[in-house]
Amino acid sequence: MSEHRPTTTDLRAWGNQALDALSAAFDKIARSRAATEGITAADPRANDWFDLGHLDPNAPGRFSGVGSVGRTTEPTEPAEPTDPSESRATSVDGSATRVADSPEATASAPAPADAAVAEPEPEKSLTELLAELDALVGLTEVKAEIHRQVALLRVEGLRTRAGLRPATITRHLVFVGNPGTGKTTVARLVGGIYRALGLLTKGQLVEVDRSELVAGYLGQTAMKTADVVASAAGGVLFIDEAYSLGGDQYGSEAVDTLVKEMEDRRSDLVLIVAGYPDPMVLFIAQNHGLASRFRTTIEFEDYTDAELLAIFLRLATSADYDVPAATQTRFRTIVAATPRGPSFGNGRFARNLLEGAVGRHAWRLRDVEEPTVEQLRELLAVDLDDTEEAHEPPPTDQTEGTDPVEEDTP
């Protein structure tokens, strides 16, 4: 008697029988779980949890529901979709947001059952955003140029609605200036202003640098850059120290991708590149596609001593600190003695001085058992001085007979 060898038809039939049995088992588990959770057939979660797909072996996605059955967490409402590859974003009102690097992980992670759903903040009007711009310390020329851009784009929108031919106006901007001169803050406001004008659908700010655009291998940079641009669609993509993309083939690949994406998304994307003045001039000039799309350069001047004091006072007041006249005088003296150069921090310099003063203020009150509210609020001139006494540790009693531990000499 010859041995019967199974044919392809036999194998397919056996496979279908096994799948039918598996489907029936899953269906039994699903119905039991659904009954326990109170999920009816009309409940939209039923398909999301238990659908195994069609049993036709040739039907695509027949196991689409298996992953759902394997969940061990409690059912939750579907998560809101997120833009892919969004790495660092700032909303129009200035609140920073962080999106997971993997959108799939974000979509699959269930929200805590007791998590409160935050209501979206109302979008600011053009008047409110321009008022916020005008309230910034200094930046006189920057404010004037932004107002000019607003007037130009507003009238262009009115011309378009009136049926007149639109002029060729590039909305992309170049910000040049030293660190700490408010470039990121103004870029965020530009996103909101353009949204209020109807030029952008969202107005969010996505801030990146070279490391978030360039990949480790040629060919991957284009995809990485395109994903970042996609996350900024509808808003502003802000590239700080953009000149770092020049000089090698990886950066050139990122720039070429940016030029293409700027063209493909010209109706709903604004690109702002920023950096030191001279390197930015060379960066824009090295690529014809960039030079033709960046027609407006806004220069951010260094803050004056008086403007730095105004920034310091504003930061201190917002943190509930008082700065008496003597402390302000000491601040002016420190600023006047500080060399100004490309590495000068401007607004960051004022913020760093405040942070140091806050630390020394706390150290000064270390032995005060019950400081008054006035003491807790008042920053003295000595708090601005980075002296050795300010960092001297409190005296401690050494126990007799205990040898001090010698530090290893590197």
How is this fold's topology laid out?
Elements lengths: L7 H30 L6 H7 L15 H4 L19 E2 L5 E2 L5 H6 L17 H9 L5 H22 L11 E5 L5 H14 L8 E4 L11 H13 L3 E5 L8 H16 L5 E6 L1 H9 L2 H6 L2 E5 L4 H14 L6 H13 L9 H18 L8 H5 L10 H4 L19
Parallel strand pairs: 3-6, 3-7, 4-5, 5-6
Antiparallel strand pairs: 1-2, 1-4
Structural notes for this entry:
By secondary structure, the protein is of the alpha/beta class. The chain has 3 domains: 14-69, no CATH class; 126-300, 3-Layer(aba) Sandwich (Rossmann fold); 305-391, Helicase, Ruva Protein, domain 3. Helices cover 46% and strands 7% of the residues. It is built from 16 helices and 7 strands. The protein has helices at 8-37, 44-50, 66-69, 103-108, 126-134, 140-161, 183-196, 220-232, 249-264, 277-285, 288-293, 305-318, 325-337, 347-364, 373-377, 388-391, and strands at 89-90, 96-97, 173-177, 205-208, 236-240, 270-275, 296-300. The protein has a 7-stranded mixed β-sheet with strand order 2-1-4-5-6-3-7. It starts with 7 loop residues before the first helix and ends in a 19-residue tail after the last helix. 24% of the residues are buried. The model is unreliable at 44-118 and 396-410 (pLDDT under 50).
Low-confidence stretches: 44-118, 396-410
The assigned structural class equals: alpha/beta
Principal-axis shape equals: extended
Q: From the alpha carbons, calculate the radius of gyration and give it in angstroms.
A: 31 Å
Q: Whole-Å distance between the termini? A: 85 Å
Mean pLDDT: 75
The number of helical runs is: 16
